[in-house]
Design goal:
Oligomer: single chain
Shape: globular
Number of strands: 4
Strand content: 15-25%
Distance between the termini: 23 Å
Strand order of the largest sheet: 1-2-3-4
Radius of gyration: 15 Å
Order of helices and strands: HHEEEEHH
Number of helices: 4
Helix content: 25-40%
Structural class: alpha+beta
């Protein structure tokens, strides 16, 4: 979670709102099943501890790539009563993959070299706290 707070896309725009971060504090694990086939299909699963925001403790998005298109499926994100959905969780929908899509950024940048990504996040955070 700590490094998720500092994550931004290549333009430096944060990928998470403050409301997203309050929910993401409850992430127990993130799993990526990458390259499910030779076309680059993948699935990403978030598992959550019991929390005050989500009824769902496991949510998953699958992106299936073929030679002509991409097809996305996702488990429903079930929010607890009187909790409003946060912007990040629209990722767990069936909309097509777009530039800057969290799944693509996660699998191509973070998953490929997590140590470098972590060190860059720590350096960015350190710069912001000393400025």
């Amino acid at each position: 979670y700590r490094t998720l707070k500092t994550y931004s896309d290549k333009s430096g725009r944060s990928l998470f709102s403050e409301a997203d971060l309050r929910v993401l504090e409850n992430v127990a694990s993130i799993h990526l099943n990458d390259n499910l086939d030779t076309m680059g299909s993948y699935e990403i699963t978030f598992e959550f501890k019991e929390n005050q925001f989500l009824e769902s403790t496991r949510i998953k998005r699958t992106v299936k790539v073929d030679s002509d298109s991409e097809f996305c499926t996702a488990s429903a994100v079930v929010w607890k009563k009187d909790v409003n959905p946060t912007p990040f969780f629209t990722f767990f929908g069936t909309q097509p993959v777009q530039d800057g899509d969290f799944g693509e950024l996660f699998r191509l940048e973070i998953w490929q070299d997590p140590v470098l990504w972590y060190l860059q996040c720590e350096a960015n955070q350190s710069q912001h706290t000393t400025s």
